[in-house]
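Example (one chain per record):
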Amino acid sequence: MPKLPAEFADLEQFADWALENERERYAKRLASSMPDMQTFYDVAFPRIEDAIAYCDKFEWPDLPEDARALMHVMQSLITVTFPIEVWKQARVPDSGAAYVDLIKEPVV
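Predicted structure:
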C-alpha cells in the first residue's frame, strides 16, 4: 500500500525515509551508505518544490497522512544534503563524539 501521494509514486521507494522526528532521521542517515543517500538525493531533490507546493495545499493540523509522509521524506532529504553536497560522509567531520540532542521537534 503506497505511503505517499500518487503524484509522488517515483518517491515511494524512499518511503522508509518518512520519519517523524529528527532523531530517527539522523539515525537513518548514520545507518545509510553514501551510495544509498546519493540515490535518495538524486531522485528526491528535483521534486522538493513540487512536494512543498503539494503540502501547502493543506492546513497544517489537517495534513492528510500521505502528505505528512511526503513532508517527512522531504525533511529527511534536508538531513542528507550536507553529507552529500559538502562532507561526502554521513557524520559531521571533525566532531568527535559530539552530539546535539533535540529536546523539542519544530514540526511534528
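Caption: Residues 65-87 form the longest helix (23 residues).
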